[in-house]
Write a structure and sequence with these properties.
This protein is α+β, with helices and mostly antiparallel strands and about 700 residues long. The protein contains 22 helices and 21 strands. It is elongated.
C-alpha cells in the first residue's frame, strides 16, 4: 500500500483538491441528511381500523375482529405476529411483518382480504381503513385550536376540514382525526305529541326528507349554439329551509317539517373532551411518518401555520404544544457539542505531547475530514443524523487521532535522524502502513457482529457501526494521502538548524511544552519504577489483579439493567381510568380535580401546559396510533409539559404515584411513555413490558 503514498507525493494537488471536495461535499451531505433522535426503526406494520357504530366490544371481537384475524394468514404472507384490540364501535388489528417484507405486496394482500371478508360480517359493515406505519411513527407535535366566539362544532369543523388537509400536505406528516369538540350534524327535534296527532311517525319524516333532499344529474340540453348541464337540485341551501319541506298531505292540508319538529345545526352526544389549561379546545396530533425527520416535519407544520391562520376567524387561536423537536435538537446538539469538545481537547493534547504546531495542524486537519467522509458515507447509505450515528462519530474521534498521530510521529523520528522530508515520509509510511492496516481491520471487525443484530437493536446499532467504520476507512486513506502531502509542505528537516516547527525558547507556548514534557518524563519514570516492582513480584500482582477483577463482578447486580438509558425530557403523560361506565361528564369533572392535584405537586413556574384528553376518538384511525391504552369513554390522558428549568421529572412522577390513588379511590393511574425515545423503543405500547395470558377456550 506504499504506492498510494508515492502517488500523493508525486501529485500533491490531486489530494489537496480531494480534501477540498470532501470539505464541500461533507457539509452538503449533512444538510441534506434527515436529522432525528434515532435511526428509522423500520419494523414493518400494517394497521387495520374497523368501525361499526354501536357494536359492543365482545361483539366486535367475536363477529368482526376474530374472523378477520383467522383469514389473514391464509392470504397474507410474511406475517410475524398479529395483535388486535376490540372496543365499543371500533376494532384495531396490527399486523407485524418479517424484516425485509415487501410492504407494497403486503398492503395489496391485506386490502384484498379486507374486501373479500365483508360478506361474512354483520350487515352494514364497511371496509376498514388500512395504514402503514412503524415504530418511528410517533407524536411529535400537538396543536390546540379554540375560539372565544365559535361553538365547539364550528371549531372541530374548521380543524378537521380546513386545518387538517393543509397540514397533511407537509412531507412526512401523518395527521389522524382531531380529539375533542363536537361533531357537527343537522338534527330534527321531533315533537311526539304533534306526530301522534297528525298520524305520523319518525320514519315518515325521515322518508320524506330523504326523498326530497336530493341532487340528481339529468344530462345535458342543447339550446341554440350552447350546451347546458342539467341537474335536478332539491337540496335546501340553508338548514332553515328544511323546516319548509312537506311530509304528507292529510285531509287536503300539507304537513310541513316545522309542524312536527324543528331542524337545527346540532351535534350528537359528545364522547371526546379536551381541556388545555382548563379551557375547552380541539386537539390535533401531528405524527412523523416512518423515516421522515422530526425537525423537518415540525418546521414544515410551523411554516404552514401562518397560511392556516389567515383562513381562520380573527378570534380563532392555534397553539403548538408538546414540541418534540426541542428535545431532538437538544439531544443532537449535545452529542455534536461533546464531539467538538473531544476533538478540541485531542488537539490540545497533541500539541502538548508533540510540541509542534505544524504537526498539530496536520492532525487537526485530518480528523474533521475523516468525520466528513463518514457523513458522506452515511448519506449514501440512507442513514440519518441521530444520537446513534453522531455518538459513533464522537466515539471514533479518539480512534481517528491514532492514524494521523502515528504517521506524523514516525515521520518526525526519521527527520530527527537527519533524513530529508520526502525520504522521511516514505520510510515512515513503509514502517507503519501494514500495522495501520491491520489495526483498521481489527477495529472494523469489532463492529461486524453489530450488522447481524436483529429487531430494534439492529436498527439502532448498525448505523452507529457504519459511522465508525466509514470514519475509520476515511482516516486510513487520508493518513496515507493527505497527511504525507501536508507533511511535505509544513514539516522541515531537523538538520537545517530548526526543530520541526519549534518556536524560539522565548515563546511562552514552547516553555510550557518543555515544562509539560519534563513533568511527563517524571511520570514516565514513576511508571517505570512501578512496572519494575510489579514484574519483580509478578505472582502477587497477578493474583491480586485477578482477585480485584473477580470481585468487581459482585457489583453487577447493583448496577441494574436497561435497554436504553432513561432521559428527562420534561414531559409527563398520565393515563387515568375512572370506574368503567363512568359518564364522560363526570369523568371530565374528575380530570379537573386531578389537574388541580398535578398543579399542587408541580410549581407553577415550572409548568408550560397541561392538556386533558378524555373519551374515545371519533375514528378508529386514532386508536391505531394511540399508545396510552384507552379502552372506553371514561378513560383519558393528561399531558404535562415542563419548562427547561425544572426539577427531575421522575420525582414528580413518584409523588403523583403516591398521592393520586388515595385522593381518587376507584380510579387507576399509569404513566405511559411521554418522551419520543421511550415511545419509539416501546413500539407503540403503553409500557416496556407486555404480559400475555393464555388458557384453554371454554
Amino acid at each position: 500500500m506504499l504506492w498510494i503514498v508515492r502517488v500523493a507525493l508525486q501529485r500533491p494537488y490531486t489530494f489537496i483538491v480531494l480534501a477540498l471536495f470532501i470539505l464541500i461535499a461533507g457539509p452538503l451531505a449533512a444538510m441534506k441528511t434527515p436529522t432525528d433522535i434515532f435511526p428509522n426503526i423500520g419494523v414493518p406494520v400494517i394497521g387495520v381500523a374497523w368501525q361499526y357504530t354501536g357494536l359492543a366490544p365482545d361483539d366486535m371481537a367475536g363477529r368482526i375482529i376474530t374472523p378477520y384475524e383467522r383469514t389473514l394468514p391464509l392470504t397474507v404472507s410474511n406475517i410475524e405476529h398479529i395483535e388486535s384490540q376490540s372496543l365499543a364501535g371500533m376494532g384495531v388489528v396490527k399486523i407485524y411483518f418479517q424484516p425485509g417484507a415487501d410492504m407494497r405486496t403486503a398492503t395489496a394482500q391485506v386490502t384484498s382480504v379486507s374486501q373479500s371478508i365483508l360478506k361474512q360480517l354483520p350487515p352494514g359493515a364497511t371496509p376498514p381503513l388500512i395504514l402503514n406505519y412503524n415504530a418511528s411513527t410517533v407524536p411529535i407535535l400537538q396543536l390546540a385550536t379554540s375560539s372565544l366566539r365559535q361553538s365547539e362544532q364550528q371549531v372541530l369543523d374548521l380543524t378537521m376540514n380546513t386545518i387538517r388537509p393543509i397540514l397533511s400536505a407537509v412531507p412526512g406528516a401523518a395527521i389522524p382525526y382531531p380529539y375533542g369538540g363536537k361533531v357537527r350534524e343537522v338534527e330534527i327535534d321531533l315533537d311526539p305529541q304533534a306526530l301522534q296527532s297528525k298520524g305520523l311517525s319518525a320514519q315518515d319524516v325521515d322518508a320524506a326528507i330523504a326523498a326530497q333532499d336530493q341532487i340528481i344529474p339529468a344530462g345535458t340540453a342543447k339550446i341554440g349554439s350552447l350546451q347546458y348541464t342539467v341537474k335536478l337540485n332539491d337540496s335546501p341551501e340553508t338548514i332553515n329551509e328544511l323546516n319548509d319541506l312537506p311530509i304528507k298531505t292529510v285531509g287536503g292540508a300539507t304537513i310541513l317539517v316545522r309542524d312536527v319538529g324543528h331542524v337545527l345545526d346540532g351535534a350528537p352526544p359528545q364522547q371526546s373532551v379536551v381541556h388545555v389549561d382548563g379551557s375547552r379546545a380541539v386537539l390535533t396530533t401531528i405524527l412523523k411518518a416512518g423515516s421522515a425527520s422530526t425537525l423537518s416535519v415540525v418546521q414544515g407544520v410551523k411554516d404552514a401555520l401562518p397560511r392556516v391562520k389567515a383562513l381562520m376567524p380573527p378570534d380563532f387561536r392555534i397553539v403548538a404544544l408538546n414540541d418534540q423537536s426541542v428535545f431532538v435538537k437538544a439531544a443532537v446538539s449535545g452529542v455534536v457539542r461533546e464531539g467538538l469538545i473531544a476533538a478540541g481537547l485531542t488537539s490540545v493534547m497533541i500539541l502538548l505531547f508533540l510540541g509542534s504546531w505544524r504537526s498539530t495542524v496536520i492532525i487537526a486537519t485530518s480528523i474533521p475530514l475523516a468525520i466528513l467522509c463518514a457523513l458522506i458515507g452515511l448519506s449514501m447509505a440512507g442513514q440519518t443524523l441521530n444520537i446513534m450515528t453522531l455518538g459513533g462519530l464522537a466515539l471514533a474521534v479518539g480512534i481517528l487521532v491514532d492514524d494521523a498521530t502515528v504517521t506524523i510521529e514516525n515521520i518526525n523520528w526519521h527527520l530527527e535522524h537527519g533524513k530529508d522530508v520526502k525520504t522521511a515520509i516514505l520510510d515512515g509510511a513503509a514502517q507503519i502502513v501494514t500495522p495501520a492496516f491491520v489495526s483498521l481491520l481489527c477495529i472494523c471487525i469489532v463492529f461486524v457482529p453489530m450488522f447481524a443484530l436483529q429487531g430494534v437493536a439492529g436498527f439502532l446499532f448498525v448505523p452507529m457501526a457504519e459511522a465508525v467504520v466509514f470514519a475509520m476507512i476515511g482516516s486510513f486513506v487520508l493518513s496515507r494521502t493527505l497527511v504525507p502531502t501536508l507533511a511535505m509542505y509544513l514539516l522541515k528537516p531537523h538538520g537545517h538548524g530548526a526543530q520541526d516547527g519549534a518556536a524560539p525558547s522565548r515563546n511562552p507556548l514552547a516553555r510550557f511544552q518543555h515544562a509539560f514534557a519534563a513533568g511527563f518524563d517524571g511520570l514516565r519514570e514513576t511508571y517505570s519504577g512501578l512496572l519494575s516492582l510489579a514484574l519483580a513480584h509478578r505472582r502477587i500482582f497477578v493474583v491480586s489483579f485477578l482477585a480485584v477483577v473477580i470481585a468487581s463482578f459482585g457489583l453487577a447486580p447493583f448496577l441494574g439493567a436497561n435497554f436504553f438509558p432513561s432521559v428527562d425530557s420534561g414531559q409527563i403523560t398520565l393515563h387515568v381510568r375512572p370506574p368503567v361506565g363512568t359518564r364522560i361528564e363526570d369523568a371530565s369533572a374528575m380530570f379537573g380535580d386531578i389537574e388541580q392535584q398535578v398543579r399542587q405537586v408541580i410549581p407553577p413556574n415550572e409548568l408550560t401546559s397541561v392538556v386533558d384528553n378524555i373519551g374515545m376518538p371519533i375514528s378508529a384511525v386514532n386508536t391505531v396510533y394511540s399508545n396510552t391504552g384507552m379502552i372506553g369513554y371514561q378513560d383519558g390522558d393528561i399531558f404535562v409539559s415542563l419548562n427547561a428549568k425544572h426539577h427531575p421529572t421522575a420525582d414528580y412522577v413518584r409523588t403523583l404515584r403516591e398521592r393520586l390513588p388515595s385522593a381518587f379511590p376507584g380510579a387507576t393511574f399509569s404513566f405511559p411513555p411521554a418522551d419520543i425515545i421511550s415511545q419509539i423503543l416501546n413500539f407503540g405500547s403503553p409500557a416496556p413490558l407486555d404480559l400475555q395470558i393464555a388458557g384453554p377456550d371454554q
